[in-house]
Design brief:
The chain is an alpha+beta fold. It has two domains: about 30-80 and about 180-330, ApbE-like domains (T-fold, Roll); about 95-170, T-fold (Orthogonal Bundle). Helix content is about 40%, strand content about 25%. A hairpin with a 7-residue loop joins β8 and β9 (about 230-235). The structure holds adenosine monophosphate and magnesium ion. Magnesium ion (MG) binds next to β10 and α9. Adenosine monophosphate (AMP) binds near residues 125, 248 and 290.
């Protein structure tokens, strides 16, 4: 009897040892080799949009990804300045001063307003006349005459937009431009949709606006000058990462680089940075802040980022020097 028990115990011990050994063995493998990634891309919002799920049921993933793409398309139809179907395009191309908006759009504008205040106007979603004057809505951008910049400055600025109760806005004859925030908002919404379809582990990338949910994901930040080289790799979990760079849309004139991010004070392209990355749980805020910090330059950007709880950032200034916020290092993969 004793012998049988001893045999049983030895058997259990062997089972436990093999079980844990297998556990150690498995965890020695790269997780990625065992991951089942479903990744799909579409061109939406003028960029390549990639949605990935990890270790999820294939049918569920496919219908969730379809719904996420549909949601991003819906947001483009709401906020785009290029697409003549969009509500914002219609507002920009109308002579009216007063508009009644949906709850969603009005709430979106309220958030834009609070970020405009937070960044002391460095994020300004009413700079469409300036973007247009510099030719960034066309294929042939160029430096405009000073009088054209002055005229565009008079027709720009969020200060001339009034948000009135019950979804009504009033604005002067200026052009709204949500290019600095719309993709971050779309990333938030796409992740919400994926979750509502039962997806737990996912990654969304809208041309550099990234949001992830579930387990950790590795995210690369592009080098601002060397094509195909990464500046840094980050490990993030349930965060958004937004990068604004002078390499995205730009032109050279007389040896000078002019990029698509405009300093609302001068009406000229911002030139203090090459690249700004901001991390926050909220994609919309991360997106708007990366643009605003690009305008502010490294020092003001760092004090702004360090003053906002749950926000970290990396700035590469115009000379290529790095500036990191207080807690940025914890996301860096060495
Ligand atoms: P992002 O790539 O997110 O930094 O956004 C850049 C886009 O935002 C530009 O292409 C413009 O459409 C718009 N934009 C440019 N300058 C500003 C600014 N200072 N504040 C808000 N939007 C801006
Ligand atoms: Mg942005």
């Amino acid at each position: 009897m004793m012998n049988v028990d001893k045999k049983k115990i030895a058997g259990y011990l062997l089972f436990i040892i093999v079980f844990f050994a297998a556990g150690i063995y498995l965890s020695d493998f790269s997780f990625e080799s065992r991951e089942k990634i479903i990744a799909r891309t579409q061109i939406l919002m003028g960029t390549v949009v990639e949605v990935r799920t990890r270790n999820e049921n294939e049918d569920r993933s496919n219908s969730a990804i379809n719904a996420a793409f549909k949601e991003i398309k819906r947001i483009d139809d709401l906020l785009s300045t290029y697409n003549s179907k969009s509500t914002i395009w219609k507002i920009n191309n109308s002579e009216k001063k007063k508009y009644i908006l949906s709850d969603e759009l009005f709430n979106f504008l309220l958030r834009c307003d609070s970020i405009w205040i937070l960044t002391e106007g460095a994020f300004d979603p009413a700079l469409g006349s300036l973007t247009k004057a510099w030719g960034f809505y066309s294929d042939t951008p160029s430096v405009p005459a000073q009088k054209i910049i002055d005229k565009a400055l008079l027709k720009s600025g969020w200060k001339s937009v009034r948000l009135i109760d019950k979804g009504i806005i009033e604005k002067e004859s200026l052009l709204l431009d949500f290019g600095a925030i719309a993709k971050g908002y779309a990333a938030d919404k796409a992740i919400e949709i994926l979750k509502s379809h039962g997806i737990k582990d996912a990654f969304v990338n809208l041309g550099g606006q990234i949001k992830v949910t579930g387990n950790s994901w590795t995210v690369g930040i592009k080098h601002p000058r060397v094509f195909n080289l990464l500046l840094a790799k980050l490990k993030i979990k349930n965060y958004s990462v937004s990068t604004s760079g002078d390499y995205e849309k730009f032109f050279f004139e007389q040896g000078e680089r002019y990029c698509h991010i405009i300093d609302p004070k001068t009406g000229y392209p911002a030139s203090k940075c090459k690249s700004v990355t901001v991390i926050n749980k909220d994609g919309m805020l991360a997106d708007a802040l990366s643009t605003a910090c690009f305008v502010l330059g490294p020092l003001d950007a760092m004090s702004l980022i360090n003053s906002i709880p749950g926000t970290e950032g990396l700035v590469v200034n115009s000379s290529g020097n790095w500036f990191m916020s207080n807690g940025f290092k914890k996301f860096l993969i060495k």
